[in-house]
C-alpha cells in the first residue's frame, strides 16, 4: 500500500458537495480540539465524497482553516485540490476508505484512550456502548506514525469494528457521517476513562458485559433515536 503523489497542478475550484464536506471536516476537527481529544495540530479528520477524500492539512491549527485551505486527494493519494500538504496520516485514512464503506474518519490522541492502548490488547466490554463499535475494541500493534505499516496494523484491528486504538498513539474511528464518527470517538474515549477508573479501585475487578448481551445491545442500538 504505497502512497503516490500527483505532479499535476491541483484543481483550484471547490464544487458544492466538496465545499459542504470541507466545512464539515473543519468543524469536526475543531470539535476534537474543543473537547480535548487532541492537542495543538495532532489528530486529523477526513470525509469521502465519491472517489475524492477531503482531509485536514499537516501542521495547520484548525482555527486557521478556511474555504481556501481545502485539501483533497483521490483514493491513490494523488492530490487533486489545494496547495497545503495533506496530513501525515493520509495512509491510514485511505486504507479505511479502501477497505470499508466508511464516509468519514476521525483520528485523535485522546488521553484516556491512549493510556489504555499502552496497557491491554483490547478494551474490554465495560459498557453496552461497546456494541456501537462492533465489539471489544482492539489495539493495533505499534508502528511509526504516517507509515503504511501503521495503516496495515490499523486495518487488522478494525476488522468487523468501526473503531480501534493505536498502541502508544491514539484512536481511529470511522462512520457513515462525520457526526457519527465523532460521536463514536467521544464514546470510545469515555469508555476508556470508565475502564481506567474501574480497574484503579484496589481489590476490585470490573464486571464485563458478556457477548450475548452485547449482541442484544447492538440490536437495540440499531433502532436508537428518532424514526428516519
From TrEMBL:
- Residue intervals of the Class II aldolase/adducin N-terminal domain: 23-196
Molecular function GO labels? aldehyde-lyase activity; metal ion binding
Superkingdom is Bacteria
**InterPro entries recorded:** Aldolase_class_II_sugar_metab, Aldolase_II/adducin_N, Aldolase_II/adducin_N_sf
Q: Offer a single GO CC term for the protein.
A: cytosol
> Mind telling me which residue stretches traverse the membrane in this protein?
none
UniProt entry keywords in alphabetical sequence: Lyase, Metal-binding
Q: Gene3D superfamilies under this entry?
A: Class II aldolase/adducin N-terminal domain
Q: Which Pfam families did the record assign?
A: Aldolase_II
Might you name a Gene Ontology BP term for this protein?
A: pentose catabolic process
The name this protein carries in UniProt is: L-fuculose 1-phosphate aldolase
